[in-house]
Amino acid sequence: MSLNLQTYTEHFTNPLYLESGRILEPYDITYETYGALNDDKSNVVVVCHALTGSHHAAGLYENETKSGWWDGFIGSGKAIDTDKYFVICSNVIGSCFGSTGPMSLQHPYQEPYRYKFPVVSIKDMVKAQRILFDRLDIHRVHAIVGGSMGGMQALQFAIHYPNFANKIIALATTHATQPWAIAFNKVAQESILNDPDFKQGYYDPDLLKEQGLSGMAVGRMAGHISFLSHESMRKKFGRDYKLTDGLYELFGKFQVESYLEYNGYNFTKWFDPLAYLYITKAINIYDLSRGFDSLAEALKRVTSTLSLISFRNDLLFRNFEMKEVADELKKIGNKNYTYIDVESDYGHDAFLVELNKFEKHVKDALNG
Description:
By secondary structure, this protein is α/β, with parallel strands linked by helices. It is 35% helix and 17% strand. The protein is built from 12 helices and 14 strands. It has helices spanning 122-135, 149-160, 179-193, 205-211, 214-227, 230-237, 255-267, 273-285, 295-299, 319-331, 350-353, 359-367; strands at 6-12, 16-17, 23-24, 27-34, 44-48, 74-75, 80-81, 86-90, 105-106, 111-112, 141-147, 165-171, 305-311, 337-342. The strands form 4 sheets. Strands 1-4-8-5-11-12-13-14 form an 8-stranded mixed beta sheet, sandwiched between helices. The longest helix has 15 residues, at 179-193. It is globular, with a radius of gyration of 20 Å.
């Protein structure tokens, strides 16, 4: 069967009440679907994206060579099998791929929000998705799956909409963002804010698409270091030196340096810097226990079957952070969860790269 990739944007005029007490109105949500919805709508799988991801999780657009960010995982016969499931992935609010974010036009002024955009939280992102599903007349789903910031969303769904999903599968994530991850985000934020071309948030987005933003590139390099690990870098680059550069040239480069430069500078041409600031803020303030007396109290609300998957060498969200969730579940007597720590040297990005190491587990969790 074909993937049946469809992209849509829904427009909402009712105010979205945010966790901060502010409101967003009107707002748009762009989303993508794969597969076909069955008659009783019981085959819906929601996929949540990470920081720089988007609704484009699988398949290829016309005239493009780069497939969706989880293409190896979603499709006919794959772990999230589109012959069986109807998959929905929406772009979070605050992002820059069609859903309302800081560079969207503010009603009624027709000027970009920029800093007038309210701070959104992971909980707000989830609430907006829930409203989207209501509009699509989908009131219960088979599963919600996500890694990294997508895993944060999946866990928020489990707590704040406990009867919405039968199964929740969260990978490479945490119950509350720890100082280590916040520190990496700080480097990125400072690099953006101190770049004169950022113009204190009043940059011309078209110019950045052309030229990029060097401050953001530097911040993104720091991010990339946190996504990999000692082992994966050693395997990937070793001490290989760029063949065309002299060892004793001051700006001669190791392969790892070229890699960081290429990924850092490239990134700034397709991701908006204000969206980056807003989404890293949402990640920094994420804490499942906010509004509850403790993490245990929050987890008592969960009724879905939980599958928790960490990666042994994840430096961004350490495997023991996920184990803390499993330990709390055990303490409160929840028997409806599984926790596995995947043997991997790849680091945080393993959930995007080493699919073969956990796809069977996800398949079993979905079909079980």
